[in-house]
Design a protein that fits this description.
about 475 residues; alpha/beta; eight-stranded parallel beta barrel; seven-stranded mixed β-sheet; 16 helices; 17 strands; elongated
Length: about 475
């Protein structure tokens, strides 16, 4: 195999790949050396390399013949650099996350170099430099419609870390279920129209731990004021019509606002490390509000003109409350866009992205035509009325629309793919995510000038043929 093409084998594709004359026999490597705070990453690298029959103990004091992990203050956050030379391999990161991402890239390179076993185990001299295109590289999982057991969430987090995804947006409440434990409202944990289930405190603690190991930020989501059918099953008094609760919270009852603030406080306390909290905020049906005396009185008391304005008033109050807790609030894009409050996640149309010009806040690009993994990847999958085809190449080409990215570059936080599970039972979760995850990872990490779909396919086929496992 041509040396340069063997050296350029990684997914996501790095910013710079420079192959030099000469090579390092992997048999010369004797161990992994790391600063104290990087030893856990070095130990994980050692465990990963055992799959390729390369056994390297990790310790603090190693130099020649070692893979040396260290920080480099000249590198940006999450950036990394690998230098392969006659004395060993030096891997530097701008921070611990950068070192971790560099070890994942190095594992891919060693897999390719070890494809023939000890018969052919030299790694070319050279330098690889990399840094992410976007700060926000996300995957959203809907665990409200169909529940996934904690073991599956843990496996997914490990796979996401391997692909340098740093945001796990977790949709945990909707009409069909409320998936976190609640002492305030324990009845919430017994609902589940499609599949029952609730994560325990111990399971959430383990999920948070594994997310931290993989440098993934969990962004929990609690939906309001629509998509609240699950809450209203247990608390019909918070609906406009308690005898027929529906899915929308009553906006005219002060008790509703007080209850939701208490629920937000309890919900967010389950994720103390997360600087963000997603409040949903879209697709609410106004019909119940229009015929509700409480909502009409609230409309008059606040001197508002219509239910859109009352809905915005409710969301501003919740956003303000989340901000008081020190979290950064996020909402889905809607027609009545809030002027500057929080981060907006655009999902429905290019027009939603365009409206961000008038806002002060940042936005996340998640337009469904490129970013919804519940959409079928192949012709063999069933199309639903709300879906269209989304093959790997369409995911690979997903990006914040070039026009808007140029105009709104300073407001673009990053991109996020979403898996909604109305029609995706738990056992299909990984099969919907993993086959397109490499394309999504490269799209969210690699610079545009380094992206080319056919070369991506070459690298993916090479890694697969050499025995690299994307799903473990």
């Amino acid at each position: 195999m041509e040396r340069n093409r063997m050296f350029d084998c990684m997914i996501p594709r790095p910013l710079e790949v420079c192959c030099a004359a000469g090579s390092l026999p992997l048999a010369k490597l004797t161990g992994i050396g790391a600063a104290k705070e990087l030893i856990p990453i070095g130990q994980r690298l050692g465990a990963a390399l055992e799959r390729y029959e390369l056994y390297l103990p990790c310790g603090a004091a190693r130099s020649d013949g070692a893979i040396v992990l260290r920080f480099d203050p000249d590198l940006r956050t999450e950036a990394w650099k690998i230098n392969i030379h006659s004395a060993g391999i030096t891997l530097c990161g701008g921070d611990a996350a950068g070192v971790f991402y560099g070890t994942e890239a190095l594992t891919q390179l060693i897999c390719v170099c070890r494809r023939h076993g000890w018969a052919d185990d030299e790694i070319p001299f050279g330098t690889i430099v990399d840094m992410p295109r976007y700060r926000w590289r996300g995957i959203m999982l809907d665990s409200a419609r169909h529940f996934q057991p904690a073991e599956q969430i843990l496996r997914l987090l490990a796979i996401l870390g391997k692909h340098r995804i740093n945001i796990f947006h977790w949709h945990l409440s909707d009409n069909e279920g409320f998936r976190t434990p609640s002492r305030l409202a324990p009845a919430l944990n017994r609902i589940g129209r499609i599949s029952a289930g609730c994560y325990s405190h111990a399971e959430l603690e383990e999920i948070r731990r594994v997310a931290g190991q993989n440098f993934i930020t969990i962004v929990p989501e609690i939906e309001m004021p629509g998509h609240c059918g699950g809450i209203l099953q247990c608390f019909p008094e918070y609906a406009c019509n308690p005898s027929s609760p529906g899915a929308e919270l009553c906006l005219g009852k002060p008790a509703v606002r007080a209850f939701m603030k208490s629920l937000i406080a309890e919900f967010s306390a389950l994720f103390p490390e997360s600087p963000f909290l997603h409040l949903g905020g879209d697709e609410a049906n106004h019909a119940a509000w229009q015929s509700c005396g409480d909502c009409q009185r609230m409309l008059q008391d606040k001197q508002l003109e219509n239910m859109r304005e009352l809905e915005s008033d409710f969301m501003r109050e919740m956003i303000w409350y989340v901000s008081l807790t020190g979290r950064e609030p996020i909402t889905w894009a809607t027609e009545n866009e809030l002027s500057g409050e929080g981060i907006v996640q655009c999902w429905g149309s290019d027009q939603e992205v365009g409206r961000q010009r008038k806002r002060r806040g940042q936005y996340i690009y998640s337009l469904n035509k490129h970013c919804y993994f519940d959409f079928p990847a192949s012709p063999g999958e069933e199309l639903f009325p709300w879906t269209s085809a989304l093959p790997e190449i369409a995911v690979y080409d997903a990006h914040a629309c070039a026009v808007w990215e140029n105009v709104l570059a300073e407001k673009l936080l990053g991109i996020e793919a979403c898996l909604w599970t109305e029609a995706v039972p738990g056992w299909r979760t990984l099969s919907k995510v993993v086959p397109r995850l490499q394309a999504w990872a490269e799209n969210s990490w690699s610079m545009p000038e380094r992206k080319e779909y056919h070369d991506f396919c070459r690298r993916k086929e090479l890694l697969t043929a050499c025995g690299y496992l994307f799903d473990q």
